[in-house]
Every structure is written in C-alpha cells, then in structure tokens.
Specification:
Elements: E1 2-7, H1 15-26, E2 30-34, H2 43-46, E3 54-58, H3 65-74, E4 79-80, H4 83-90, H5 92-101, E5 110-112, E6 128-132, E7 142-144, H6 147-157, E8 163-167, E9 174-181, E10 184-191, E11 203-204, E12 207-208, H7 209-222, E13 227-234, E14 237-245, H8 255-267, H9 276-284, E15 289-290, H10 301-307
Parallel strand pairs: 1-2, 1-3, 3-4
Antiparallel strand pairs: 5-8, 6-7, 6-8, 9-10, 9-13, 10-11, 12-15, 13-14
Helix pairs in contact: 1-8, 3-4, 7-9
Length: 318
C-alpha cells in the first residue's frame, strides 16, 4: 500500500509514529512522510487523492497538518482518523459540547475567547482546571484554586487563545489513560500533570467493565478509530477529561505493530473501531474486572470480560 504520514516537527523524533512508519516499510509498504510545519506545500499537488491509499495525521493541535488532512479528505482520500472526527476532539470546547450532548460523563465546561471572561464563573465552581481549547500533551494545564488566583494568572493565560475551564474533579493524582487500537482497549496509569508530586509508576492496569464501556462509547460518539481517553476516578464515578486522536500508545504491548495493522485495515476500508457487540457484552457483565488488555472484538467480547490474555500480533500478511 501507499501511505502518507503527516508528522509535524514536535513529533519528528518520537517513537510514535516513527516506529509505525518503520514497521510498515518492513512489511513492504510505501510510506511518504510530509512535515507540514517545515515545508512549503503546493496544495494542488500535495493533496492528489490518487497518490496514496490513505493519509495519517500525527501533529500538534492547531498545527497545519489537520488542514492538509482535511484537504486530502475533500479530494476523496481515505484519512486516519476521519478528518471531521479529528476536528471534533481537537477543539476541546467543541468536544465537550458533543460529548455532554451525547451522554458521555464529561465535566461542565466553560469556554472564553479572552482569559478575563473566565472571571464570570461562579466562585462555587472552584477549584478550576483551565487549559487552551487547542492544547495537547498536557501543555498549559493549570489548577486554579480561587477567583483571586485566576486574576493573578491573567497575564500568563493571555497568549493561549480560546480557553476552556472545568470544575476540578477530586482524585488521587493518578490519570487513567485508555488507548483504543485495532478494536482493542488498553488501560494505563500515570501521574496527573496537576499533581507533579504524586508517585505514580506508569504501567498497564486492569480495565473495569464500566470504564471500558465508556471508552468504547467515546469512539462511537466522536467517530474515532485510533484514540486515547483520559479518565479520572472522581467521587461520583469515572469522568472523561480529554480525548486524543492518534495518541502515544505508551505501554501498549507491540504498539507499533498494532497501530500499523490498524492503519492498514482502515486504509483498506476494513475499519478497526470497537464492535457494537462489545457494549452489550460489557453491560451484561458490568462491574467485573477486565484483564490486560481488553480483547475488544466481536468474536471475543463475551470472554474478554472474564479473562482475556494479551497476545502479540502476527506478522502482516502479504
């Protein structure tokens, strides 16, 4: 297959997606890497829909890569993820409106074009988490304790563009990151950027049926195939605090091969989104623990809830 990866400078030396590109080439596929942030692009030629079987985006939010991906999609090319779906999660204000409207457990979200407008948020909503609407990789995420603290931070927030603010969800300082790839879910724990002093080793962890169902629903709501979900275990249950297209897949076993295979499946039109049968199986077995990873395919959905075992992916068939 012929694939085009759009990779901006921020990810130039990252294992994801470079290891995926190497894996695809090792399987005999042709992969072109474009760096939209550092290249002069002749758009009429760059988005020739017939030049590649699929386009893959790994860029920072707000970067030029998404524009190029959307241009390729408009020309009829297959994109990974769907270009419209990516736009829906990269704008965190839009993502919150979509998710809350479709019943996902997201916190109430305020959006402001200028930081001083956040002063209108009632004091009862504090502490707040304030971050850029187009933020990524934990950039410029702030825990704001009071209206007075917000006032002191206004100069720091002034250059961040559109901002979103959400009431802080009390938690232990541990973020749960759930990755969806190739129809499977993998859960990892890591230290929250809001709690830098917490001691949390990054590791794979069991995934409960409740959280697995929420994360499968995230893919359905936003139309994503490869994605990550940040979940906090708050006092009233799991809360989705962020959704990312094409995340790092850190700690996922054989991540490069799994992602590469998912890209090929999507390029061929086979798709890799979690099967609808998963939701019903999880609802029937709600409350039980998943082993690591959750095998989320129609054939194994019923047994996955009880005891799924990780399996290394086989080599890519010719």
């Amino acid at each position: 297959m012929r694939l085009c990866f759009l990779v901006e400078e921020h990810y130039r030396h990252d294992g994801m997606p470079n290891e995926v590109v190497r894996q695809l080439k090792a399987w005999g596929h042709r992969v072109e890497v474009l760096r939209p942030g550092g290249s002069l692009l002749r758009m009429s030629e760059a988005v020739d829909a017939g030049a590649h079987d699929a386009w893959v985006l790994k860029t920072v939010s707000g970067g030029p890569g998404l524009t190029l991906l959307e241009a390729a999609a408009a020309a009829g090319a297959t994109t990974v993820n769907d270009a419209r779906a990516i736009r829906g999660v990269r704008d965190k204000a839009l993502a919150a409106a979509i998710g809350r409207g479709r019943g996902l457990p997201l916190p109430p979200t305020y959006a402001a074009a200028r930081p001083e407008l956040l002063a209108q948020i009632p004091a009862s909503e504090y502490p707040l988490v304030v971050k850029p609407a187009d933020g990524s990789s934990g950039r410029a995420v702030h825990l704001v304790s009071s209206p007075e603290r917000l006032a002191a931070m206004l100069p720091e927030l002034a250059g961040e563009g559109m901002l979103v603010a959400q009431p802080y969800v009390p938690n232990s300082g541990t973020d749960l990151k759930v990755y969806a790839v190739g129809g499977e879910l993998f859960a990892t724990e890591r230290r929250s950027p809001l709690h830098p002093d917490a001691s949390v080793p990054e590791r794979l962890v069991p995934l409960s049926a409740e959280i697995a169902e929420i994360c499968a629903r995230v893919g359905e709501v936003y139309g994503l195939d490869l994605y990550g979900v940040d979940v906090l275990l708050g006092p009233e249950g799991p809360v989705v605090v962020d959704v990312n297209d094409f995340p790092s897949f850190r700690q996922v076993p054989d991540a490069a091969a799994r992602v590469a295979r998912a890209v090929l499946d999507l390029a061929r039109g086979a798709g890799s989104r979690l099967c609808p049968e998963i939701g019903s199986a999880l609802r029937r077995r709600s409350g039980q623990e998943m082993s690591i990873p959750l095998q989320a395919t129609a054939a194994t959905a019923a047994t996955a809830v009880a005891a799924a075992a990780p399996a290394a992916p086989a080599g890519e068939p010719v």
